[in-house]
Design brief:
Elements lengths: L1 E5 L6 E6 L5 E6 L5 E6 L4 E5 L5 E5 L6 E6 L5 E6 L3 E6 L5 E6 L18
């Protein structure tokens, strides 16, 4: 499945990404605009390099669809929220899980704050 980024003034497609096996539900952009994150009904997230258009990381581990995704304000982590009632924060630099939370409240929205100054 694909997602696209459009120039709203010209209507031109700036980026078209394929890489998900089922529909994409959410897309987020890194604070500096260099990366995009997509996730959806295939239970995975992907990080994309906006300069090259290449997928640079596949985030796996959820067992149900990923309905939300966001970057931390400092850009060091990405968080996913899934219908499996888990939210996961992953370090972008070393591609390791920084935190995983299970709650019946996790479903369709994620927002990321810095992890008590451990975000670096």
């Amino acid at each position: 499945m694909t997602w696209r980024m459009w120039d709203v003034e010209t209507g031109q497609c700036l980026m078209e990404q394929e890489g998900h096996s089922r529909p994409v539900y959410t897309v987020a952009f890194h604070p500096d605009g260099s990366l995009a994150a997509s996730a959806g009904l295939d239970s995975i997230g992907r990080l994309w390099d906006c300069r090259t258009g290449r997928s640079i990381w596949t985030l796996e581990g959820h067992i149900k669809q990923v309905l939300a995704m966001d970057f931390s304000p400092n850009g060091y982590q990405v968080v996913t929220g899934s219908d499996d009632h888990q939210a996961k924060a992953e370090h972008i630099c070393n591609k390791q899980c920084a935190m995983a939370v299970h709650s019946d409240k996790v479903q369709s929205q994620c927002a990321m704050a810095e992890l008590n100054n451990r975000a670096q």
